[in-house]
Amino acid sequence: MHFLPAFLALGLGAFKHCVAAPSSTIHSNHVVHETRSVEPLDWFISHHPEAHKRLPLRIGLAQQNIENLESMLMAVSHPDSPEYGKHWTPQQVVDTFAPSEESVRKVFGWLKDSGFSKEKIKMSANKGWIQVDATIAEVEDLLKTEYQVYRHNESGEEQIGCHEYSVPAAIREHIDLIRPTVHFDHRPSPKSETKFKRAGDVGKSPGTGPKTSPTPIHTLPVSPGLADCDQMITLGCLRALYNVPEFKPRSLDKNSYGIVEFTPQAFLAGDLDLFFRNFSPNLVGVRPKTVLIDGAVVQTTNQSSNLNGESDLDLEYSMGLTNPQTITLLQTGDLVEGAGFDNWLDAVDGSFCTFEGGDDPTQDGIYPDPLPGGFKGPESCGIIAPPFVVSTSYGEEEVTISAFSATRQCTEYGKLGLMGTTILYSSGDRGVGGHNNGQCLNSAGQPANNGTMFNPQFPASCPFVTAVGATQVNPNSTVFDPEAACEQVIFSGGGFSNIFSVPDYQKSAVASFLTNHPPPYTSAQFNTSGSRAYPDLAANGANYVVGIDGKFELVFGTSCASPVVGSFITMVNDARLAAGKGPVGFINPAIYSDDFKDAFNDITQGSNPGCNTIGFNATEGWDPVTGVGTPNVAKLIPLFLALP
């Protein structure tokens, strides 16, 4: 499964939109700081918001040393580094990246000069964010912009925002972003989604979720053998495909593996037991350790493949592969407002909370939830230590998030890597197209039905996460034959970012692909200027046997592959912890290195079509379809175990 599970949805309740103020009103010392990357589809401008309404403004201050984040992360993650494995403490991270006193002073001065009293300005504990109590009229004057209220065509839901905004040139370098402004939630909230469902959408969660086969499995029980792995993937098929040694964990109390799900997506206990009775009997009755984030519930009232499929899949396979390791379910968001990626980040990183200004009301749930029936408690800030591995089978199109917001969130993934956490995201199920029915971009970079430009996915495109693509056992082949890129029901998401530059760890691999296997496309179709490429690696994503709503179904997607890879990294961490070492953390520098080449099965068949093209080809070496290939776990464990 994958983005939009590969169920997909970003949702958020009432939000707004803004346009630039007439040019004559923009002061000469102001410069445009952010412009919305894409105008929302299915929304229309309804009216101008009332000028006296309050608009809690949050200003994200530029952090220190961000330009050094990649090199700092490489120091603790590259196998050749003498600092390998020396992960940072949370306090080290806060101290290193806190904004400078100069940034704090200048932004405070700007606000005071603009007429805001000291009582209306608050600063977060880590000095990363400033919150201003202001009316819409005051914010419009401050940012030289104009807000508009947008209404959704189907649901009638409203949002508020602006097309672009400006800040004084002298302080621009001291500000990352300001919210709410240009950031727009392109989909209605979970509350309206219960009435206006769309295939692939799950609440507000941006997701890549499972795609189910139109033909259900009628044969019970399903054979756990290897003879039919080209038609039905099971735990045994995966163990054979990836040379998984018998797992005898020795670090159960020290190890941790987190699975992120977004309400109303939820597992059903009966589905887990249906699966376990057939494939892992000693897990019958066992449940994940559930951490409820921001009023989340594991809801069972509404049941369907769309609502249960992703969570059922993720837990059945992660629990089955790592048994008896306890899996932590990071269930995120209430039933009314839902959640986005920043919400689960809040729970493992308190300094990123809304209280600190971190969440985006157009992408994330804002708690306490003011909507009727919403969660009224405080938001979940730093309620659990970051698990050593976190898998998220959801995503969104890069174009639906501003570059500033994407960069800010990506930075947080890098910080988690510094602290020793492996962050996995599925790469998408529409090949080089977007999750929204494979929609591509037009020449202006906007999603369009007739678009021809490839549509990269986020957070898979963040250079500080490990993006997971999908492969398949070819029809009439066995688990002992080479796999190909997935071309059944879904296509492995992959391509080149339009936001992030190519990181050092993959420069050589990407250059080799472009030189030795040049794609037949130009810059009119994908970013050829040297950008982050994805996925980083892959695993099977076709024909998974999953217990869903009391029966077995076949499921497809990169969202199948991500929790499987997470299970393998959890096995690696178990071995290292038992040897008195730390978790592997950010794995990309290692898996791209020459020393790890033999630990991956190179995938050289298939492609990832989209945008009326065949997409990219899976070829020898790294490629933007299956990355460096699929893991050989028996080889991967000793390689990581040999590192400090």
TrEMBL record:
<feature type="binding site">
    <location>
        <position position="603"/>
    </location>
    <ligand>
        <name>Ca(2+)</name>
    </ligand>
</feature>
<comment type="function">
    <text>Secreted tripeptidyl-peptidase which degrades proteins at acidic pHs and is involved in virulence.</text>
</comment>
<feature type="compositionally biased region" description="Basic and acidic residues">
    <location>
        <begin position="183"/>
        <end position="201"/>
    </location>
</feature>
<keyword id="KW-0865">Zymogen</keyword>
<feature type="compositionally biased region" description="Low complexity">
    <location>
        <begin position="203"/>
        <end position="216"/>
    </location>
</feature>
<keyword id="KW-0479">Metal-binding</keyword>
<feature type="active site" description="Charge relay system">
    <location>
        <position position="314"/>
    </location>
</feature>
<keyword id="KW-0106">Calcium</keyword>
<feature type="active site" description="Charge relay system">
    <location>
        <position position="310"/>
    </location>
</feature>
<keyword id="KW-0732">Signal</keyword>
<feature type="domain" description="Peptidase S53">
    <location>
        <begin position="232"/>
        <end position="643"/>
    </location>
</feature>
<dbReference type="GO" id="GO:0046872">
    <property type="term" value="F:metal ion binding"/>
</dbReference>
<dbReference type="GO" id="GO:0006508">
    <property type="term" value="P:proteolysis"/>
</dbReference>
<dbReference type="InterPro" id="IPR036852">
    <property type="entry name" value="Peptidase_S8/S53_dom_sf"/>
</dbReference>
<keyword id="KW-0378">Hydrolase</keyword>
<feature type="region of interest" description="Disordered">
    <location>
        <begin position="183"/>
        <end position="217"/>
    </location>
</feature>
<keyword id="KW-0843">Virulence</keyword>
<dbReference type="GO" id="GO:0005576">
    <property type="term" value="C:extracellular region"/>
</dbReference>
<keyword id="KW-0645">Protease</keyword>
<dbReference type="Pfam" id="PF09286">
    <property type="entry name" value="Pro-kuma_activ"/>
</dbReference>
<feature type="active site" description="Charge relay system">
    <location>
        <position position="559"/>
    </location>
</feature>
<feature type="signal peptide">
    <location>
        <begin position="1"/>
        <end position="20"/>
    </location>
</feature>
<protein>
    <recommendedName>
        <fullName>tripeptidyl-peptidase II</fullName>
        <ecNumber>3.4.14.10</ecNumber>
    </recommendedName>
</protein>
<keyword id="KW-0720">Serine protease</keyword>
<dbReference type="GO" id="GO:0008240">
    <property type="term" value="F:tripeptidyl-peptidase activity"/>
</dbReference>
<feature type="binding site">
    <location>
        <position position="602"/>
    </location>
    <ligand>
        <name>Ca(2+)</name>
    </ligand>
</feature>
<feature type="binding site">
    <location>
        <position position="621"/>
    </location>
    <ligand>
        <name>Ca(2+)</name>
    </ligand>
</feature>
<dbReference type="GO" id="GO:0004252">
    <property type="term" value="F:serine-type endopeptidase activity"/>
</dbReference>
<dbReference type="InterPro" id="IPR015366">
    <property type="entry name" value="S53_propep"/>
</dbReference>
<keyword id="KW-0964">Secreted</keyword>
<dbReference type="InterPro" id="IPR050819">
    <property type="entry name" value="Tripeptidyl-peptidase_I"/>
</dbReference>
<keyword id="KW-0325">Glycoprotein</keyword>
<dbReference type="InterPro" id="IPR030400">
    <property type="entry name" value="Sedolisin_dom"/>
</dbReference>
<feature type="binding site">
    <location>
        <position position="623"/>
    </location>
    <ligand>
        <name>Ca(2+)</name>
    </ligand>
</feature>
